[in-house]
Amino acid sequence: MKKKERHQLLRQLVQQETIRKQEDFVAILQDRGIEVTQATISRDIKELQLIKVPAKGGGYQYNLPPEMNYNISKKLGRLLKDAFVSIDTQKEFVLIKTLPGNAFALGTLIETAKYQEVFGCISGDDTVLVICRDEDSSNRFQRRIISFI
Known about the structure:
Layout lengths: L2 H14 L5 H10 L6 H11 L2 E4 L5 E4 L8 H12 E7 L2 E6 L4 H11 L4 E6 L3 E6 L2 H14 L1
Antiparallel strand pairs: 1-2, 3-4, 4-6, 5-6
Helix pairs in contact: 2-3, 4-5
Protein name: Arginine repressor
Function: Regulates arginine biosynthesis genes.
Main location: cytoplasm
């Protein structure tokens, strides 16, 4: 199972099930025939920014962070206003430079927004490479990003 698919499944699980510890994720996924380690789940929890909230029967359970419910466009705009450095295109590629430490969040927001122009993203510490469907899509996407700034 690819990371993106696993992240989507983990988001669903925390909304549908009471998951109190990382081992619960591992057990549920293994019951579904998906082999995963506790270390992988630990990284996924960090990347998804899952939080622990009080559970009904006492103790705590994993949940999505409250900000996941906010408008993605507003979050994108805020992040771009705070961390944008530059943007450039080459054919179907859009390269966005940010202040250090911001590119991963930007790439995640772009993928979460599910823009039609975007095929996928690769994020580093201060750079997001957005792979668009074609050259026209990359130009439209660049204009979209600039409109946030």
